[in-house]
Every structure is written in C-alpha cells, then in structure tokens.
Predict the structure.
Amino acid sequence: MSKEVTIPQEVILSKIYEIRGQKVMLDSDLAELYGVETKALKRAVRRNIDIFPEHFMFELTKEEHESLRYQIGTSNEGRGGTRYLPMVFTEHGIIHAAHVLRSPRARKMSVRITEIFIRMREILQTHQDLFLQLEEIRSKVFGQEEQIALIFEYIKQFEQIKQQELEQQNRPPIGYKTGKK
C-alpha cells in the first residue's frame, strides 16, 4: 500500500524559476518532489537523453548557476554544494523525467506540477491586459526619478511651512500684560 504525498501548491510554485525566458525547475527540486536522489534523476535522463531536446531540459551555464545560487541563497561549492552544473526542466521535460524514472510517485507528481504550470499560464493570459498596463506605466515612469524626487522635496517643504504656520498661530502673543482681561 503506497502512501500518497500531498505537497502544497505554494511549495511547488516556489521551486519554479525563469531562466532563459522559460519557466523551469531545478534537477534537485524535481528529484525531491519525485522522491528520488538527484543523481538517480540525472542518470535516468542521461540514459534517455534523446528524448530531452534543449526546450525540454538544459544544463545551466556556470554564470547562470552562480546567479541562481546568489538569488536563492544556496551553499558554496566547497561546502556541500553541487559538483556538477544543474539541469533544469521545462514543463515538457518534467513530464518526460517522470516517465524515464518509471515511479508511480513521479508520474502523479508530474501531473500535479503540470497542472500548476497550466494554472500559471491561465493567470498570465487572464491578466495580460493588466500586465500590459503596468508595463506602460513603468515605461512612462522610467527616467522620471529626478522629477518624482523633486515633487517629494516640494511636498516636504510645503509640510514644513504648514508646520511653522501652525506653530506661529499657537504661540502666545508677545507684549505687555495689562490687568484687563
């Protein structure tokens, strides 16, 4: 009797990166989700490399690996890091990896991961007009940092003047005091 493993969507989403303009998962993350060692996953992929074209799976360059390690905060090579450059898998590569592993857990998990990839695409398509509007605003604001900073400086000066006027109004009158009330 196999025990089914439920992994929250957020955990899977946190393991999806964008590299070379593609949504991908690292070999180590995929191996963890599939319940195998990373070297077993890599070995199975290398034995079946003919079904993994570059748009399904590719190896990171040293620069990409360094950038990614810095981004996600993994260890240095000399202290428990990987000895080989990681493989990354696109949505289609994730499915193929599950098939070459021939593990029930890997097949079930690849379905779950694929569903999340599909949901991500649907969200992007549904909100594409919003993303386009945000990009338009960003392009209009880009290069306007000095003007925006100047506006904030004027607002700050205006607030200081208002504060001085308020203090002036609330201060006691100057002059002689007479006995009259």
Observations:
- The chain has eight helices and four strands.
- The first strand starts at residue 16 and ends at 19.
